[in-house]
Specification:
Elements lengths: L10 E8 L11 E5 L5 E3 L16 E9 L4 E8 L8 H6 L4 E7 L9 E4 L9 E8 L4 E11 L5 E10 L9 E4 L5 E9 L2 E8 L4 E7 L8 E3 L2 H4 L5 E7 L6 E7 L5 E7 L8 E2 L16 E6 H11 L1
Length: 310
């Protein structure tokens, strides 16, 4: 969740922005729409809506945000294309240090993509960028995972962060989340004066839940969640609030089994209790959804997207 405020019109639908895998065209930006957040219809006949022709000429992990103070939308994504055959070791240790950025005023007409380098000395990669609005600085906090020296002769993935107001100029990156082993794929949602963080912990191979009062708190409270602890081989968490009720949906990417996203529902973020939905309770559409993000939409925004790509 990355919005400092909401549009005047009520939210009535949802946009899912994602990639689909390591196929020839899979690492680009795909769109899907939903009325209820659980049943999705792919846009543009299941083909990419946005393509990156910069850097590695492919993107993963697209994150979409509503920048209300600018009346704009941004998409930030990992500059990575595994389909090129480079392999995961090269991607982690000798990969791109840039994120790919698009911007739009209406979700339909998008700028050309641009590349923004995150200045982390010695970083082997910049993965899964996301943002959350920082009320304290009135700017966007963009955060991502980078493979860096761990100070003990090894290397590990650490979450770094930087402030930006326009996704062109960025503050000096700083360490944000560090654990004993690799940590990747952090997503954050604000609710009730708390920032709830969901990250993929490479020791447990599952999603860990933390919360803090301030966005960049280096010592958050870790919350117990047996439901998340029981889900192994998942990553790429994405969370959003339902438009019509006090419930949230957490999506986790089942990378180990190759099944794509699995939705979980909760009415208590602090309690860490989630219900895994049965296969008859949701429909993710024709394309396999991999690590992405969801944006709450107004009816007018939904209609415009349907007109353009439905």
């Amino acid at each position: 969740m990355s919005t400092p405020s909401s549009p005047t019109a009520p939210y009535a639908a949802y946009l899912f922005v994602y990639f689909i895998g390591e196929s020839e065209d899979g690492e680009q930006v795909y769109f899907s729409l939903s009325r209820d957040g659980l049943h999705w219809s792919d846009l543009n006949n299941g083909q990419p809506v946005l393509r990156s022709r910069l850097g590695e000429k492919g993107v993963r992990d697209p994150f979409i945000l509503r920048a209300e103070e600018e009346s704009k939308f941004y998409i930030v994504a990992t500059d990575l294309r595994i389909a090129s055959g480079k392999g995961w070791d090269v991607a982690q240790y000798e990969g791109s240090r840039s994120v790919i950025v698009w911007e739009s005023e209406d979700l339909v007409n998008w700028s050309a993509e641009r590349s923004a380098e995150m200045d982390v000395p010695g970083a082997g990669c910049v993965w899964a960028p996301e943002t959350c609005y920082d009320e304290a600085t009135q700017s966007h906090w963009i955060f991502w995972a980078s493979m860096v020296e761990d100070g003990q002769g090894g290397r590990k993935q650490i979450i770094y962060g930087s402030h930006t107001k326009d996704f062109r100029g960025f503050s000096k990156p700083e360490r944000f989340i560090e654990r004993g082993n690799h940590v990747i794929d952090t997503t954050i949602i604000r609710e009730g004066g708390w920032y709830y963080r969901y990250s993929k912990d490479e020791t447990k191979k599952c999603i860990v839940l933390e919360r803090s009062r301030s966005l960049t708190d280096p010592s958050p409270e870790e919350l117990s969640s047996p439901d998340l602890d029981s889900l192994f081989g998942v990553e790429g968490p994405a969370i959003f609030k339902f438009n019509d009720r006090n419930e949230w949906c957490l999506l986790v990417d089942q990378y180990a089994t190759g099944k794509g996203y699995l939705p979980l529902v909760t009415d208590d973020l602090a309690g860490g209790r989630f219900r895994i939905l049965g296969p008859d309770e949701y429909d993710l559409g024709e394309t396999k959804k991999r690590h992405g993000s969801i944006l709450n939409l107004t009816q007018a925004e939904y209609d415009a997207l349907m007109k353009a790509w439905g």
